[in-house]
Here is the input.
Amino acid sequence: MNTILRSSLLLASLGIGMPAFPISAAETRPVAAQAALEKASLSITDRQGNKHDFTVEIARTQKEKEAGEMARTSVPDGTGMLFLFNPPEAAAMWMHDTPVSLDIVFIGADGRIQAIAERAVPFSERRLTGQGESVAVLETAAGAMEKAGIVVGDLVTSKALVTAH
Here is the structure.
């Protein structure tokens, strides 16, 4: 036991097992919602040919993407946030510091929905991913996709969204 205690004290004094970097003051402050971003129109055409229109904020920069919907207490119907990825990537989203449930829609290079994470759990740190590389991810109010009958394979169009189709 003494050997274990001495080893633990030695490791602690050397900083082994401790975080590689200190927690900064910015990391300990409460998260504030980011200011409204540039807006664009977005439509999703379902398999019956019905168009569902949204007004979305565009998250282009890494900073805008990292802040996303964090600390926002509501996402009004018909609105959302569109995260753009150029080049396309295997996007992973989470609900860290996000107090409202969201539908998270992964959009492939062909403009089609490749995956939907419906009613994502507020504050969850679980990584939510699409099926392959995404050119964009759309976040809307929880239940919006189900209410509109939007499913995987439906077509997303927007001037903000550059797709291969």
